[in-house]
Amino acid sequence: MLVEVTIICFSFFIIEYKHNETAKLSLQLTKRINDKTLC
Fold first, then answer.
1. Dist. CA 39–CA 2, nearest whole Å
2. From what superkingdom does this record's organism come (predicted)?
């Protein structure tokens, strides 16, 4: 039981981490597009 909970928590952490990294990348892309639009 404890092992299952640990795996679930660990996989949830990985999903959250990937989501945060993707959000950072999309934010950087948006900034670059905005900069090009302004130029």
1. 56
2. Bacteria
* Model-wide pTM > 0.70: no
Q: How confident is the model over 15-34, as a mean pLDDT?
A: 88
Question: Which token pair is 3?
Answer: 């092992």
**Residue with tokens 């989501």, as numbered in its chain:** 19
Q: What is the dihedral of CA 20, 23, 25, 30, to 10 degrees?
A: -160
3-state helix, strand, coil in the chain (%, to 5): 95, 0, 5
Number of H helices, E strands in the chain: 1, 0
**What's the sign of the alpha-carbon dihedral 15, 17, 20, 21?**
negative
